[in-house]
Amino acid sequence: MEAFYKREQGHNYIMFQVEPRLAGTAEISPGGGKQEHWDSQIEMVRRNRIPGLAQLSIQWEDNKMYYGYDITGMQPVSRVMEIRDMSGDEIKEFLQQLADVILRLEQFLLDRDDLVLEPEYIYVQLEGPRYFFFICPGQEGGYREHMKRLSQYLLEKADGEDTESAGLVFRLYRLCASGEAEPETLTACLNEDSLKPQAENTSGRERYGCREDTERKEEAEWQEQIDDMRLGEKEDKKRYRTGIRGILHRIFRRTPDGLESMWDELEPDNRRLSNRTGGEKTQSFTEERPTEVLYVEEDSMLSPTLCCQESQEVIPLTHFPFLVGTQENWAHYNPGFHGVSRLHLKLEKKNGMYWIMDLNSTNGTKLNGSPLLPNEEKQIRNGDHIWIAGLMYEFMEFDRKEKSC
Asked: Is there a smaller number of Cβ atoms within 10 Å at the N or the C end of the chain?
């Protein structure tokens, strides 16, 4: 399944190339096809008769039919989960809306295998939230396989410190892995008690004990899944805790066992020595010791900034990715202009080079006068001009001592 983005008349679209479903053996030409031969179910989707499915428009290019969906003002779930974790309430709403869409597909005799369940192609309104799904015939694999991949993605992205969120995605993953990703089971997944077996004809204390055993078992299984998926992270931490940086980590991230222990770590040669009597003697620490200053060398003396040509405001890009928009607690800089989207653009640094990406903004982003397509990423260099909904900024790299544009 291939998709591309385009901007047309102030709207952003995601386009899927598909083979049209035809009734009988009649063919449809892009110029003057007969409407009565169009598939009735797809026509329902085109008219947006199913809540939860994005607005569909059918377009022809080079004798090929495309399904286009209006995604103006929305963001993909994958991007949202890169910025922050989804809360338990958001995951509940997501699963409930997904279950409702699947049930409505069945009512209109649509094939659930055509439902796009890739996180990159599931969009959400930032205020609400409300999730929107797409239909695209001809995908590889079926509904159960798609749901299994989706549940695995959510499990990997779950916040282990949020017990509600982690419990929800684990129950979802367990159901999908067993092939039970029906709408009813998705709804039942929202209710933890409905999935726990309760013994019949037993006292309340016995049922409570059964529930405790189930909770402990589920918690152990969940922890095992998290440990497996975060093995790479543990290896990174292990490598981090070697050398001088590791010593500093052990000293400042926990309470030292004592002054002697701290110096033993910093100077491995100055360890406790055994005396002839079998006792232990410790080197005195009252004598003067040379003081060493440890510092981290900066990678570069260049500090990237954006300079607004209208207000002469200088915006230091102190970290990456750097998000520009009006969404509170998400964007790192708000231009304060009415034409800027909630999440308008992203600045990124990769392999020493800087990149800009339009985040499906409503009024668009321009680089040196050329408009970027929705979700398009391009490299930027010193002196490039960036238009953010009509405001012009200059991207600059200069010494930190310089403060003016």
From this structure: N
